[in-house]
Amino acid sequence: MGHAGNNVIPNVHFRKVNGCQAGRKNRVFMRTWLDQAGRKKRRANNRKAKAAKLFPRPAAGNLRPVVHPPTQRYNMKLRLGKGFTLELKEAKIPVKQAKTIGIAVDHRRRNRCTESLQTNVQRLKLYMSKLLIFPKKSGKKGVKKGDTPRSDLQNVAQNTLREIIPVPKPELRIKARAITGAEKEKSAYKTLKKARTDKKYLGAKLKKAKAASGKAEE
Predict the structure, then answer these.
(1) pTM of the full predicted structure?
(2) Is 12 helix (H, G, I), strand (E, B) or coil?
(3) What count of other Cβ atoms lies within 10 Å of the Cβ of residue 93?
(4) In the 8-state DSSP scheme, what is residue 68?
(5) Among 100, 120, 124, 206, whose Cα sits 20 to 30 Å from the Cα of 78?
(6) Per-residue pLDDT tens over the stretch 98-148
(7) Contact (Cβ atoms closer than 8 angstroms) between residue 64 and residue 81
């Protein structure tokens, strides 16, 4: 049998065996997962051991901000970020203090959205309202300013949630409703067009206003 062109001779190494020989010869290629239940138990025990090691601090570690992932594909979702930046200033929490009370800090982060900024400020305020600070030393002299009274520290339960404060789930579906008259009259194209025009001629307008004010002073 001839071949068209100088091609590689096919040799696919087909190992699958039909019939009764399949159980003997093909089993070497099968991946088993017989320790699934054991691994599940081991993960649960590791979580318990980690929580016991961190007690009375939250098992999830430090509090992290809620951020939108990058790119248009994922920016409608919410996830935990690396640390807080501008929100600490808005919530009036010093950066040095934040690191000592279980709040993650990321000095490189930028926040260009007022809504997400306020969301994380409220997240910090909620955390501070529920925060209990244990005295480092025993006795009356061991209690410092800002520590929680010992009467409030009896039988305190540990926070074992994954995010300390759960990440809010945005509602992706909007219920259908009738279009209002104001929405019909408003044109998104005209609004964007005006914004682009104003931005383009802003420098010329400022220059013109400055020149007019200079002539008025003379």
Answers:
(1) 0.64
(2) coil
(3) 20
(4) P
(5) 100
(6) 998 999 999 888 888 889 899 999 999 999 998 888 887 777 766 777 777
(7) yes
